[in-house]
């Protein structure tokens, strides 16, 4: 096992997009922090490999497909052997496909989105819990989305219950339901762990200009923000978390998002 002086962060979906940006910035913020970077295909994770070679022994690349219980279990065992503790878990891996409305949505694809965005994060959290208990950070961050918010959807409905012209109405059915489920998991887990001082939150990262953000922007016409803006904001919020914040749904600027 590696000798670890600083905090250990585990970030899923760390090979590209927001996960990669978070990995870079966590490493930049402290010389002693270690990042376990989860990705589905380490052999193709060229950017992560470069980051790993320029950061000595502070990046551990771990094969992790959050939709596969075998992969999650193997990753947890690997993390236990490599670093032996977890201070901050960022459940970042996510998928938006398919973007279909409810009545035409392919049910098997819906099931897969739920697996990746909701069930996978719960599985990973459960499997890593023994290592989180050994760490000092006691922080679990679920990267969610404002479009999984019931409150925000309600605000886009007119008073007679008909949908307004919001580009998000009736769209991305699978994605929004999966993020709503993730949000409920945040609340339930926060309640379960409350007496132990854990910080469990959901957070909306804005619309970072990752592959997902660019696709969403091209379909809705809504503006993106840079990966750097999202990652910097998220890390500021995460570093400032206190046990009293557990169970909250925040955005990357630290503002509360309605459930
Ligand atoms: N960008 C936005 O506009 C936006 C807005 C709100 C919330 N979010 C959330 O932010 C998080 C990061 O998204 P992003 O914008 O960086 O999207 P992205 O560019 O599409 O990246 C998604 C990441 O998740 C990984 N992933 C997908 N399925 C996986 C699985 N089964 N197991 C493990 N990893 C998997 C991908 O790995 P591969 O390379 O192997 O596919 C990739 O690393 C997601 O949870 C997303 O829902 C994004």
From TrEMBL:
Pfam families named in the record: adh_short
Record key words, sorted: NADP, Oxidoreductase
GO molecular function, a single term: oxidoreductase activity
GO cellular component: cytoplasm
Organism domain of life: Eukaryota
InterPro entries tied to this protein: Fungal_SecMetab_SDRs, NAD(P)-bd_dom_sf, SDR_fam
Family listed: Belongs to the short-chain dehydrogenases/reductases (SDR) family.
Protein name, per record: Uncharacterized protein
Organism: Apatococcus lobatus
């Amino acid at each position: 096992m590696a000798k670890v002086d600083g905090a250990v962060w585990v970030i899923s979906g760390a090979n590209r997009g927001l996960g990669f940006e978070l990995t870079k910035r966590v490493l930049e913020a402290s010389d002693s922090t270690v990042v376990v970077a989860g990705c589905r295909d380490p052999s193709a994770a060229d950017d992560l490999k470069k980051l790993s070679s320029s950061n000595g022994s502070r990046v551990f690349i771990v094969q992790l497909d959050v939709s596969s219980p075998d992969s999650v279990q193997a990753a947890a065992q690997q993390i236990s052997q490599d670093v032996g503790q977890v201070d901050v878990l960022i459940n970042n891996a996510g998928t938006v496909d398919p973007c279909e409305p409810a009545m035409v949505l392919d049910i098997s694809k819906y099931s897969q989105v739920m697996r990746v965005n909701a069930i996978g994060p719960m599985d990973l959290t459960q499997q890593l819990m023994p290592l989180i208990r050994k760490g000092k950070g006691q922080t679990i961050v679920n990267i969610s989305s404002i479009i999984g918010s019931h409150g925000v959807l309600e605000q886009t409905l007119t008073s007679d219950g008909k949908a307004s012209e919001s580009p998000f109405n009736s769209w991305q059915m699978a994605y929004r339901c999966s993020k709503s489920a993730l949000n409920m998991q945040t609340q339930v887990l926060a309640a379960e762990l409350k007496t132990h001082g854990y910080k469990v939150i959901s957070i909306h990262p804005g619309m970072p200009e990752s592959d997902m953000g660019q696709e969403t922007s091209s379909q809705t016409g809504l503006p993106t923000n840079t990966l750097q803006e999202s990652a910097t904001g998220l890390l500021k919020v995460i570093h400032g978390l206190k046990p009293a914040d557990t169970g909250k749904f925040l955005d990357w600027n630290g503002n509360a998002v309605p459930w």
